[in-house]
Amino acid sequence: MTARPVAQLGRRILIFWWPVIALAAIVVAASSLSSTDGPFLQDTAVTDLVYLLFVLGLYVFAGNSGVFSFGHIAFAAIGAYAAGIFAIPVATKAQLFSSMPSALVHLHTSSLVATLIGGGVAAFAGLLTSIPLMRLNGLAASLATFALLIIVHVVAQNLNQVTNGQSAMTGVPTTTTKTEMIVWCLLGIAVAYLFQQSTWGLRLRASREDAVAARASGISVYFERRAAWILSTFYMGIGGALYGQFLGTFSPDAFYLDITFLIIAMLVIGGTTSLAGAVIGSVFVSVASELLRRLELGPHIGPLHIPGRPGVQAVGLALIMLLTLLLRPGGIAGGREIHWPLNRLLPRPVVSTAPEVEVGRPARTDAAAE
Amino acid sequence: MTILIQNAIDAISLGSLYALFALGVALVFGIMGLINFAHGELIMAGGYALIYLGHPAWPILVLAMLAIVVALAIAIERVAFRPVRGANPITLLVTSFALSYLLQNLAQLIFGSIPRVTNLSTSLSESFTIGSVSVPKLDVVTVGVTILLLVALTLFLNRTRLGVQMRAAAENFWMARALGVRANTVIATAFALSGVLAGTAAILLVAQTAVVTPTMGSSPVLVAFIATILGGMGSLRGAVLGGFVLGIITVALQAYLPLELRYYRDAFAYGAVIAMLLLRPQGLIVAKSVVTRI
User: Fold this and answer.
1) B→A interface, C-beta within 8 Å
2) Is the CB of residue A61 less than 8 Å from the CB of residue A69?
3) Biggest CA pair distance of chain B
4) What interface predicted TM-score (ipTM) does this complex get?
5) Residue A179 in contact with partner chain B when CB distance is under 8 A
6) Do residues B43 and B205 lie in contact, with contact meaning Cβ atoms separated by under 8 Å?
7) Contacts of A310 in chain B (CB under 8 A)
8) N or C: which end of chain A has fewer CB within 10 A?
9) How many CA atoms lie less than 13 Å away from B266 in the CB half-sphere?
10) At A305, which helix (H) or strand (E)?
C-alpha cells in the first residue's frame, strides 16, 4: 500500500521538474556538441554558456515582469570588476594597478568566492538601483535602464583606480571551465523556474498581464518587480564574474552595446515570456552565430573557397531578430514551457501549473502613465 | 566675459544640432509611439551618401542626398515598422533597436569599418571675428539652417492639410483615423520629414567632423533620446527645447565642471535623464496626447 503514494510523489516531482529537465538536456546536449571540433569551439561554448546565464538573468526580470531592460549588462560589468579585484593575486595587482587603493590591493580570495562576491556586489547595486528604476513603467523604465547602462559604462571607463579604465583589467586568473559553466547554467535554470513558480513570480507575471487588475488584487507591483530585479542582477553579476575569469583581460567595452544586443536578440528570438524561450533562444542564436561566423570566414565547399566578409555574422543575427519580431512576435517558444509530454497518455493531472498566457498579443499598456 | 560669450555661442550651435536630432525622433514618436533607434542610421546613411555622391554643385548634392535619406526612411517604415504598428511601445523599441543594429552592420559590411574622410567644409571652416570673440562660419550656418527648418516645419504643420492631419494624429491617432485621416500617409510623412531632418543633421555633422563611420549615428540618437525625454516625449516644441537645454548643459558641464569630474560628463547627463523620468515624466513641455481626458 505504501508503494503507490511513493510512486505518485515521484510522478509529481517528475512532472513539476520536467520543464527544467528538458531544458537542462538541451543545454548539455548543445554544449557537448562543441567537443567535436577542437579547442576553439570549446572556448566558444564557454562564451555561449556565459551568454545563456546573462539571458537567464534578463529573463528573470524582463520575462516575468514584462518590463524590458537594456541595462542588465551593466550589472555583468559590475560583477566582472568586483570578482576581478578579488581573483587577481595580490602581487600581480600591486604591479598592474598602480593607483588602486591599498585596501583593495590586499584582497584576495579563491575564484569561487570571488564569483559569489561578484554576484553579491551586482545584487547590491541592483538593490540600490531598483529603488528609483522600479517606480517607472513601460517605455520610461526601458529608457531609464538604457541610461543606466551608459552611466555604468562611463564610470567604468574613467574610474581608473579600480577598473584600469580603457586600458583594460588584466591578470585575472582564467579559471572558468566549460563544466563549471554548465553547472552554473543548470543551477540558473532551476532557480529561474522555482522563482517563476513561486508566489512572488506568479504575482509578478500577473502584473505583467494586467498591471491594473494585479494592483486591484492587492499585488504591490513595485515590490514584486524589485525582487525580480535584484535576483536578476545577481545572475548578471555571477555571469559577469565568470566571464571576466574566462577572458582574463577585459575593458568596459566588453560589457556594452554589442553584448547587450546579443542577449536581447537571444531572448526575443526564443520568446520573452517563458523560460523555455530564454534557453532555446540562447542555444539557437549560439548555434546560428557559430554557423554565420564560419560563413563570415568564407566557407570551404569541397575544393571551392567562397571569400567571406566581416560583418556577415552581425547582419545575419540582426535579420533573424527582425524577422522574429515581424513574423513571430512570441518567439520560437511562443510563451510556452516544455511540459511533461505523457500527460495525455495517462490523464491524471496531478500538478496544476499556471496556464501560460498567449504572448503574441500586445500587452495592454497605460498610455497616460508614460 | 569673452569666454562666457564664446561658450554661449558654442551652446547655441550645439543646441541647434541637438534640436535637429531630437526633432527627427520626436516627430515619429508623436505619431506612432516609436522611439526610433534607427534614426541615427539615417544620419549615417546621409554621411555615406555625401561621400559617394562626389562633388556636384552644392544644391544638387544636398537635394540628392536628402532624397536618398528620405527614401531610406520611408523604406524602413514600410518594411520594418508597418508590420508591428500598434504593438506595445516596448516591442516597437526592440524592433527599432534590432533595425539600427542591422543597418549599422550592413554599412560595415558594405563600406567597411574604416572611417571615411571628406573635405566638405573647406569654405565653412573659417571664422568671423567680432572683437575678441571668434564665431566659426559653420556655427552660423548650423543655427541658420536649424531656424529655417523649424520655421518651415511649423508652417507645414499649421498651414497645410497634411500638416494639420499629422498634428491631429499625434494628438489622438484613433480619433483622427475615425475622422478620415489616412494612417499610412501620415506615418509615411512623419518618416519622410524625419529623413529630411536626419539628412540635414548629417551634412552639418560631417561638415564639423569630416569623418563618416558606420557607427556615427549612435551618439546623435542617444542625444536625441535625452533631449526628447527632457523636453517631453511626443511634444515637438519640447524636443527643440530639450535639444537646446542639453546643448547648454553639455557646454556648461564641459566648461565649468572640475577637471576630475569632467570625464563623467555623460554619466551626469544620463543621471539627469533618470531623474527627469522619475520626477517629471511628462517633460518640460507636456504633449497634448499625454494629458488624460476624463
Assistant:
1) 33, 35, 80, 83-84, 86-91, 93-95, 97-99, 101-102, 105-106, 108-109, 113, 218, 222, 225, 229, 233, 263-264, 266-267, 270-271, 273-274, 277-278, 281, 289-290, 292
2) yes
3) 60
4) 0.86
5) no
6) yes
7) 108-109, 113
8) N
9) 17
10) strand A304-305
B101/A318 touch (CB, cutoff 8 Å), yes or no:
yes
Break chain B into its structural domains and give their ranges.
Answer: 2-120+137-221
Q: Do A67 and B90 touch (CB under 8 A)?
A: yes
- Check: CB of residue A356 under 8 Å from CB of residue A335: yes
DSSP conformation class of A255? G
Which of A72, A146, A258 should we substitute to test contact with B (largest number of B Cβ atoms within 10 Å)?
A146
CA–CA distance, B275 with B196 (Å, rounded to integer) = 32
A146 touches B at CB < 8 Å = yes
Angle (deg, nearest 10), helices A178-197 and A3-33: 130
Q: Which residues pair with A305 in a beta bridge?
A: A300
- Inter-chain contact B84–A326, Cβ cutoff 8 Å? yes
What is the gyration radius of the CA atoms in chain B, in angstroms? 19
Q: Which residues contact A98 (CB under 8 A, 6 or more apart)?
A: none
DSSP, collapsed to helix, strand or coil, labels residue A300 as strand
Provide the residue ranges of all domains of chain A, joining segments of one domain with +: 15-255
For B157, residues 6+ apart whose C-beta sits below 8 A from its C-beta are B163, B164, B166, B167, B236
Residue B7 CB-density burial (10 A; 0-12 exposed, 13-18 middle, 19+ buried): middle
Answer left, alpha or beta for residue A122, where phi above 0 means left and psi between -120 and 50 means alpha. Answer: alpha
How far apart (Å, rounded) are the C-alpha atoms in residues A254 and A243?
10
- Judged by a CB distance cut-off of 8 A, whether residue A223 touches chain B is no
- Using CA atoms, how far apart are residues B117 and A80, in angstroms rounded to an integer? 37
CB count within 10 Å of CB B15 equals 27
pLDDT in tens, chain A (370 residues): 567 788 889 888 988 999 999 999 999 999 888 777 777 888 889 999 999 999 999 999 999 999 999 999 999 999 999 999 999 998 888 888 777 887 888 888 999 999 999 999 999 999 999 999 999 888 889 889 999 999 999 999 988 888 887 778 888 999 999 999 999 999 999 999 999 999 999 999 999 999 899 999 999 999 999 999 999 999 999 999 999 999 999 999 999 988 999 999 999 999 999 999 999 999 999 999 888 888 877 666 666 666 666 778 889 999 999 999 888 888 999 888 988 887 655 545 444 444 444 444 444 444 433 3
> Global pTM?
0.88
Whether the Cβ atoms of residue A157 and residue A165 lie closer than 8 Å to each other: yes
CA A137 to chain centre: 22
Nearest to A322 among B98, B225, B233 (CB): B98
Q: Which residues contact B153 (CB under 8 A, 6 or more apart)?
A: B23, B193, B236
